[in-house]
Amino acid sequence: MMEQNPNRVIRKKKKRKKRYISARFLWLILFLASIVFAITFWRMPMFPTKWKFIVVLVLAVIDWLTFLLTSKVRPSNIFAQVMNTVLAVALIIVNIALPYYTDRFSNIFSSVLGNEVRIGIYVMTDAYKAKYKDVFTNSEYKESMKLAEYQNATFITAVGVDGNNQNYALEQLSVDLKNDNLKTVNSSSVQSAVKNLYTNQGDVLLLSDSYLSTVLETDEFKNFKTDTKLIGSYFRKVETTQVTEDKTNLANTPFTIFIAGNDQLGDLSLEGRTDVDIAVTVNPNTHQILISNLPRDAYIQNPAYQNAKDKLTHLGLSGIQNTLKGASNLLGTDVNYYMLVNFTTFEDIINSINGVDIDNPFEFTTYFTARTYPQGTLHLDGELALEYVRERYSLPNGDFDRNLHQQIVLSAIIHKLLSPELISSFNNILSALQGKFLTNVSTDSIYALCKKQLDQNIQWNIVKYHLDGDTGNEYCASAPDQVLSVVYLYQNQVDFINTEIDKVMNDEIISQETLPEGTNNNSTN
Predict the structure, then answer these.
(1) Is 344 helix (H, G, I), strand (E, B) or coil?
(2) Helix intervals (H) in 22-77
(3) Residue 365 and residue 135: Cα distance in Å, rounded?
(4) pLDDT: is 394 or 347 the higher one?
(5) DSSP letter assigned to residue 392
(6) So what's the pLDDT on residue 141?
(7) Which residues lie closer than 8 Å to 359 by C-beta, 6 or more apart?
(8) For position 110, what pLDDT does the model report?
(9) What burial class does residue 1 get, using C-beta atoms within 10 Å of its C-beta: 0-12 exposed, 13-18 middle, 19+ buried?
(10) How far apart are the C-alpha atoms of 98 and 90, rounded to whole Å?
């Protein structure tokens, strides 16, 4: 048997002993990762300057201590190797995560400026025509998805109330049908236009999605979706621009933002009725927030119709900018900013922050689902919160109590967003917010506000009011041939709110008071 050479064994052992990564080399990686992290963190726009100095100082101390330890032990020291490796890996992960989440946050706000409005092309179904043969005896057209077959049809429009969308659709139809002289029947309102389709006064109806909900709410046309066939659509681009401002403007200057809840499901639109209408006045210098909730049926001036009177919710049919103009006129202050959500996105946002906790002022049972909301502290997920802010039929004061519920939930959302819990839900919130709201507030302004909040740990004073009024029935500018339910706001309450807004804007401190009792003056504001 051959004997093994002892010298050869020793050489192998020596080679195995040299197979390690030096602790000093790992410290060098840690040092480089620290420098990159310091630069990355310093460039983050949402962090206060004092935080940045603290982070740089902490990194310098860590690097110095680890250097001292590493230089005093052998390069193969396991503790030094593990410590340097763990710290370096942690910094590398953070170096990747910070820009990633910053980009995601920026994209949320940079992607909401453009928006589309769909204008649907509708015809009556063959089944409906067969059921009402006496009305459609002279109808020349069968239900068809081929738009070309309607080249000589009569198109029903409502240009007077939805001019931008209707005219855009007519222009596109002229091109697609190669017909510059389309036959049209113009109606005084959307409701009249739909009735003209039902009574065979025309063959094809042009109807934008922003008005669809108003049609479906009418008993006469509640089956519109099954009675008609959508044979095509056009999408008109609606552009809005961010308000020109200095990067730190909203962090140092009082402002009012209008929070609107669109009554549509699915995709958001800058045009549509607003079932939730809340003006939030913020003074970042005095740490005041004034929430003014307005009834959706408030009978106010509609700028899109030469300031003729209309329901507040209908101002949004002419676009969110029209709603801002009407709100500015009513509240006596410039309302330049908006945040628009709808029922679908509201539920998603609530779920992203793991629900909200509210103090429910009185017990009630919902009209449609028979779900009971007891008095006291409640935790609401997205579905329950949406039902809570939409319910009105079972409430003692109907729409006015619904406004109160909306304020309660909004306050709960604000408190949740300002709480430390936000950090643990940050990733979920970013995912939920993407494409879930429309706003003209710039990313720079959001960063500036975040930076100030983190720097000063602001405790906000939140004051809430919801305007009341008498109910009545009136013709409205956007529906001139209909008598609709409206709310005549109490003028003394409007004056009170305007005064409180002025105080907040002028750096005065306000406190929660009792809203003046309204007087029955049938004010039309």
Answers:
(1) helix
(2) 23-43, 49-72
(3) 44
(4) 394
(5) -
(6) 83
(7) 376, 377, 378, 408
(8) 55
(9) exposed
(10) 12
**Residue 114: Cβ-neighbour burial (10 angstroms; 0-12, 13-18, 19+):** exposed
Measuring CA to CA, which residue among 453, 194, 163, 138 is closest to residue 322?
A: 163
Token output for 307:
């300031």
Give the integer Cα–Cα distance in Å for 215 and 389.
23
d(CA 476, CA 479): 5
DSSP string, 301-339: EEGGGTTEEEEHHHHGGG-HHHHHHHHHHHHTS---EEE
Report yes or no: 295 and 392 within 8 Å, Cβ to Cβ.
no
Greatest pairwise CA separation for the chain in angstroms? 118
CA distance 170 to 208: 12
Q: How far is CA 496 from CA 149, 162, 465, 520, in A?
A: 59, 35, 10, 16
What's the CA gap between 126 and 66, in Å, rounded? 81
356-360 and 376-380 beta bridge pairing: antiparallel
87, β-bridge pairs: none
pLDDT band, residue 241 (cuts 50/70/90):
low
Can you tell me the distance from the alpha carbon of 392 to that of 99, in angstroms, rounded to the nearest whole number?
45
Considering the entire predicted model, what is its pTM? 0.77
What is the CA angle 375-376-377, rounded to 5? 135
